[in-house]
Amino acid sequence: MADNGDDVDAEYSIRDGDYIVLKRGEVYKAAQIQKKRKVIFEKQWFFLDNAVGELFGTTFEIQAGGTLKPHAPKQAPSAADKEAKEAGTDNRNIVDDGKSQKLTRDDIEMLKEQGLKGQEIVQQLIDNSTTFKDKTEFAQDKYIKKKKKKYDNNVTVLKPCTRILAMMYHGREPGKICHLRHDTLAQMLTLGNIHAGSKVLVFETCAGLVLGAVMERMGGYGSVVQFYPGGGPTRAGMENFGFPPHFHETLHEFPLCKVNTLLAGKLGAEWGPEASGDPQEEAPDGAEGEEEAPEETQGMEVSAEGEDSKEKERKEKCREKKAQERKVKMEEKRRKLVATAALLEGRDADGLVIASRFHPCPVLLGLLKFLAPSRPFVVYCQYREPLIECYTKLREQGGAINLRLTDSWLRHYQVLPNRTHPVLLMSGGGGYLLTGITVATETDAAAITTATQAKEEEPASKRIRLEEVDGTSSNNDA
Amino acid sequence: MADNGDDVDAEYSIRDGDYIVLKRGEVYKAAQIQKKRKVIFEKQWFFLDNAVGELFGTTFEIQAGGTLKPHAPKQAPSAADKEAKEAGTDNRNIVDDGKSQKLTRDDIEMLKEQGLKGQEIVQQLIDNSTTFKDKTEFAQDKYIKKKKKKYDNNVTVLKPCTRILAMMYHGREPGKICHLRHDTLAQMLTLGNIHAGSKVLVFETCAGLVLGAVMERMGGYGSVVQFYPGGGPTRAGMENFGFPPHFHETLHEFPLCKVNTLLAGKLGAEWGPEASGDPQEEAPDGAEGEEEAPEETQGMEVSAEGEDSKEKERKEKCREKKAQERKVKMEEKRRKLVATAALLEGRDADGLVIASRFHPCPVLLGLLKFLAPSRPFVVYCQYREPLIECYTKLREQGGAINLRLTDSWLRHYQVLPNRTHPVLLMSGGGGYLLTGITVATETDAAAITTATQAKEEEPASKRIRLEEVDGTSSNNDA
Amino acid sequence: MSLVEYSACIREGDVVIVFLGHDSMMAVRVQKGAQTQTRYGAIRHSSDLIGRRFGSKVTCSKGGWVYVLHPTPELWTLNLPHRTQILYTTDIATITLMLDLKPGAVVCESGTGSGSLSHAILRTIAPTGHLHTVEFHAERAQKAREEFERHHVAHLVTVRNQDVCRHGFGVVGVANAVFLDIPSPWEAIHHAKSAIRRQGGRLCSFSPCIEQVQRTCEILVSAGFTELSTLEVLLRTHDVRSVTLPLPDFGSEDGHTHTGTHTPPPPSSATATIKTATPPREMAAHTGYLTFATKPRE
Amino acid sequence: MSLVEYSACIREGDVVIVFLGHDSMMAVRVQKGAQTQTRYGAIRHSSDLIGRRFGSKVTCSKGGWVYVLHPTPELWTLNLPHRTQILYTTDIATITLMLDLKPGAVVCESGTGSGSLSHAILRTIAPTGHLHTVEFHAERAQKAREEFERHHVAHLVTVRNQDVCRHGFGVVGVANAVFLDIPSPWEAIHHAKSAIRRQGGRLCSFSPCIEQVQRTCEILVSAGFTELSTLEVLLRTHDVRSVTLPLPDFGSEDGHTHTGTHTPPPPSSATATIKTATPPREMAAHTGYLTFATKPRE
After folding, report:
1. What does the mean pLDDT of chain B come to?
2. What is the pLDDT of residues C210-254, one digit of tens each?
3. Cβ B90–C84 below 8 Å, yes or no?
4. pLDDT for D190-205, tens place per residue?
5. CATH code of domain D15-71
6. Reported confidence tier of residue D267, pLDDT bands at 50, 70, 90
7. C266, C258 Cβ separation under 8 angstroms
8. Cβ-Cβ contacts under 8 Å for C202 (sequence gap 6 or more)
């Protein structure tokens, strides 16, 4: 639990193959440590080889040839963030004559040759600007940011986490995560009561970021079922977290297009261990789709060509092997599907998190059926109208209480002596959330029995008990 | 323009019949000075008689019998707003035993008899509270507000203005003004470019507040046409401004239900000076409606009873007189309608302000036709969806550019040494605005000619020219 | 039942949330033979609660019904006994994410206060993390301990009754994250720093006033903390409803309104109904400023 | 044309706003024989502008078209040459209302800056009010004077080139309202007070930093100002658009998706289109704090 020795440095060390996040100022980029592999970040390229063995949180200088040289700790990012600034409060005395910078391009090249670092060059530029002091603070910040970007050659290597990845995606590619802002994600994880040991359902088209955030909060305990549309689940964002292997064992997937079958109770009959189910028949299905399609197309093109018998034989063998592989793959897929179905059939999941580009209303109404009563659900949507519809439908059909439609407002502050004020720009909106809690409906009596039975068959991971604490009053358990 | 003598005190003096606003803390109430008339404010009653002759801005103490006694200037409101507070930052040491107030009810009565004023009593209560100092600031404020409300007997008499009346309505009766917040009203007046000398169209169901705000900004120069639904325009909010009589001469009204007739160019034919137009036919019309209805009903009831001939004669005469009065009234109404129609026919109004409980889309599309090109319009709606529809329709039909759908966010600050932070509560929303600028449509060529002709016939108030400045290049006028 | 783990059914000793209706709830400790009065009548624990599934509808003695809910840190925050001003879920959610909390994390908190944040932290760091929470006020520290026991999370938390500004958190070099909600956070920064692991960690300070933030930031910088970030998050709840708007009657072109008897139905009473969501008339505009910082590795 | 009065048609010497498209405008001074280049080609002033009605569509030499608009203080704010940071319409609207400005009001302003607020004040106080505006920077004061001339409002305004903190507004006891946008407003409060009429009036100070607000409020209170109120207004523009959301395909009950060839049309491509409005990705989060106060009658 609490550890303080050198032995834990291993946990903080950067190893080959690790998923990392590169940081410079407010800019982040997810990457993986791969030796001799070029990485491009902020228009600069370099190799991460030298990061291996260093600790997470280290700031490196990018040197000639793209090698990284670690800074000593302390020296690094904080100093770089503090310029000795003296702001003019307006541009009263600025006459723009194009002569405000006393350093020439040659001067700057010379400074570089003298070995001055990015931050030092920026400070030189500031010191040699005749107008800098008279610029308004806003203009000064703009100036520094611009110059820093041009001359900064530091990069910090961070351990990925929800906070960093959420800020990274929102800053770089908000479209990929449905413009989900990190504070809104924070609300989702908390209002969804996501925690270790529970069984959480996730449907997202946020590149896997939401899935990863949920898994981080589960800490490898419990189970996550990811519903997915089309060919297969998107998980790139989750991969960026670099979870240890046992986390992945808690992750299950289930195709949206099988939800109705499952709800009708017919999935077992068709896909259970008894039914052998022809995988061929299943191949063109949406559940397979994208992943398999290119392979098959290729195969068909080849067989259409004229070939000699040897070639044909080889092809035939190849085809057989492929068919065999496909069969194994299908069998594996079937096994996993059935296992996931077993997790869902009890309709006793502990949480539901939806954040997608799909209309949330049918998604929510469909997946809500898998939740136990008295469990929270959260639905994110970039737009307000679809959640108004969700709200209205849920009120009509019942089974959920404490419905809340919310949005949030996030503002950062600059806190500096005599220059404290809100940061001048903010995000215009963080999207909308609908949250609520499931309750038993009148017709639940039968369902309760089913659910209780199903509970016995659940994977052990769901039932991590803190027996020593929880067992005190077990004699009263009905 | 600039005046500084005693002679202008008249302008600042409270006179009998004046419209005023009563203020205590953040609570406002509009009233009129009427001698010997009881006024109830914050659960206290009093007479405003003694306010006459005093200056606006005077704070009065309510004395026994409801008479007002003016405070000396300076002494009044600022001191009352500053308590010597010393806030605990949490409730760490508070034990709630119901004994925290050392003053008994009798003690307080005694203080009152000793002639202590409200603020002094509150200070006594604070000084004698054993827990006050340990309360959090938030709890302290709540305590003071509660006690102040109970023991305060001061009231300030203010001259009405948009700022004060807008805050009053929003604080007391937001439903009456469609929840229009004062900062949103501020945006409307500015984005609508409301100013002296222009011709502004107003359609509002905000008790007349928006109309009054527009008229204040016009300063009695130019003209305002108020469109109204149903029986007649609502103007109570405007009356509260207490404008001088000549302001009212710039105010015109036009019934919504005649808009189509006017647009079809048929109003003149039917209502112009040539057509005599039977007023009787018009009486049951919506334009008359509510105002007249009760009178008529009464008349019919009376005539149904059996009466002797003398009585009958008297009734007959009365009826004739009433019919005559009605005829005069109708003629006056007709005259005004025709005059207002003349203001509108040129379709060259300078601004349009809409703030109503009606669906803004048909209202806007209908009334926009009366605007000249290159003129701003502003539409307020408490809800977002109707303005989205307005926006979409306007984009489809053209004739307006620079469309903006906005909402605003307003937060107040407590600024006190070492206790500066945003005020803890804020309004959740100030409604939505759609703003834009009219432009000439392709088919405007004909309209331009008409409009230019119409301009000559406009009332003079519209054309206050600053000739000395504006006339310099009149030789270039096409 | 535990505040860090779901159960299916209600047992004696559980704390359950009785949901009475919109924004109306209460926390109830389940005891055999006990009764709880609500505006809908009494709830008899033995027959109405014990053994029932969480989320069930329970009919009270007067015939009205309520839902009995499994407690979560969020429901607890809405129903806990206030011993101090408390942190609410919007800030708690932001704190949890920005402090990188997750199962296994070791967290230091001061003050414990009413335990609103503590429960949310425990939920997130269970089953392998630990919370060291420091409370200046003895009675409050004791009450917090009792609550943690009742909520079956006592094994995850150590409550210390001491002044964090003078005596720190009682641990050194173990914390992944520190949270401060005290009047003078700047006086506790060096203790916070030493409580955090030498490999680095995160810090959050919550302060209502900007002057507190200014002093705290100054000390944070001089203590070597980096990535300072002060922010505010406000949550706005929208009321979903149908609104009927009248449509204007511009009359017919011949000068008559449509209200005449010969043109039914009268369009002057025509309306349009829209579904919309409206913000509350009043909402929380400020709770406190959240200042986050990173202690870099030593 | 004047910035305080509408005209129907464009004349030589007028300043017109050429509207090129969404968020793209420019201010143009109309001169016989002159040409203005736009991305749609040239606009020839003599034939394309002079004599045309404001609001007309003008076809440029390359065949593209623009609208020519009558200048308003609000359009001027969006198109003026920046000599300083300027005040924008959201703050200006609030200032105008909260200072009780109306025709006939006498207003003192410092600094003049780029004249963004000055024009809005002039629009509101015309035709009988007066603006006394003080600008420290000589060149800026001169440029402001020239602009007021060009905009035909010079008779309503007196520009003074002096340091308001040292020498005040140059008038005493005449102002209904004073506006301060200077680095140390607290140094000008006593001048502001003496500029306001003895019957009382309103004051507004605009400051970006909270420390400026704190010092200003302190001095305002000690100078006898009342009804202090510090606030912020943020305007958010929403982008109205149609959004198409895919509908999920849960498949049929028999385990097949609806994408099979025998059930057209495939619902997996089913969508719902909604009309919505989305906030901007980034917006102004802060311009400055507005502090209002009342000078009570003497």
Report:
1. 79
2. 999 999 999 999 999 999 999 999 999 999 999 999 999 999 877
3. yes
4. 999 999 999 999 999 9
5. 3.10.330.20
6. low
7. yes
8. C98, C99, C100, C176, C177, C178, C292, C293, C294, C295
C13 annotated among ligand-binding-site residues: no
Phi then psi for residue A281, to 5 deg, are -60, -30
CB atoms within 10 A of CB B449: 10
Looking up residue A20, the CATH number of its domain turns out to be 3.10.330.20
Cite the annotated binding site of D for S-adenosyl-L-methionine by residue number.
114-117, 135, 181
Option in A92, A359, A384 nearest D272 (CB): A359
Q: What architecture (CATH level 2) is domain D75-234+285-295? A: 3-Layer(aba) Sandwich (3.40)
Strand partners, C291: C205, C230
Distance from CA of B83 to the nearest CA of D (A): 13
Domain co-membership, A45 together with A187: no
Q: Would the CB atoms of A464 and C127 count as touching at under 8 Å?
A: yes
Q: Is B229 on the interface with C (CB under 8 A)?
A: yes
Of the candidates A346, A341, A344, A406, which has an alpha carbon nearest to the alpha carbon of residue A379?
A406
CB B88 within 8 A of CB B134: yes
DSSP state of A134: G
Q: Do D85 and A91 touch (CB under 8 A)?
A: yes
Structure tokens given for B392: 């979409």
Residues B205 and B249 in one domain: yes
Domain residues for B102? 88-154
Contact criterion met (CB below 8 Å) for D263 and D238: no
| Contact criterion met (CB < 8 Å) for A439 and C56 | yes
What distance in Å separates the CA atoms of residue A381 and residue A204, rounded to the nearest whole number? Answer: 10
ipTM above 0.95, yes or no: no
Joined tokens for residue A243: 């979870």
Q: Exposed e or buried b for every residue in D15-50, given b needs 16+ CB within 10 A? A: bbbbbbeeeebebbebeeeeebebebbebbbeebbb
List the one residue out of A379, A64, A331 whose CA is nearest residue A210. Answer: A379
Q: Is A376 inside a domain boundary? A: yes
Task: Please answer whether residues A187 and A430 qualify as being in contact, where contact means their C-beta atoms are separated by less than 8 angstroms.
Answer: no
- Cβ distance of A90 and D183 shorter than 8 Å: yes
Q: Is B389 on the interface with D (CB under 8 A)?
A: yes
Distance, in Å, from the CA atom of B296 to the CA atom of B319, rounded to the nearest integer, reads 10
The SS3 of residue D64 is coil
Q: Are B444 and B341 in contact (CB under 8 A)?
A: no
- Interface test mutation site (partner C, options B26, B85, B261, max chain C beta carbons within 10 A): B261
- Residue whose tokens read 């002639």: B115
- In sequence order, the 6+-apart residues with CB closer than 8 A to the CB of C224 are A74, A78, C193, C295, C296
* Cα(A143)–Cα(A134) distance, integer angstroms: 12
In this structure, is residue B326 part of a structural domain? Answer: no
Residues of C in contact with B420 (CB under 8 A): 209-211
Entry field: residues in chain A? 478
Q: Which chains touch A (3 or more CB pairs under 8 A)?
A: C, D
Domain end (from A134, A154, A174): A154
Same domain, residue pair B43 and B170:
no
Q: Flag whether A262 is in a domain.
A: yes
pLDDT of residue B446: 40
Task: Tell the CATH topology of C75-233+285-295.
Answer: Rossmann fold (3.40.50)
Q: Whole-angstrom Cα distance, residue D238 to residue B406?
A: 6
Tens digits of residue pLDDT in B8-38? 577 789 999 999 999 998 899 999 999 999 9
Residue among D113, D286, D288 whose CB faces A423 most closely:
D286
What is the nearest CA distance from B232 to chain C, expressed in angstroms? Answer: 14
CB atoms within 10 A of CB A75: 10
Q: Quote the CA–CA distance of A63 and B331 in Å, as a whole number.
A: 92
User: Contact D183/A426, CB-based, under 8 Å?
Assistant: no
Residues recorded for chain D? 298
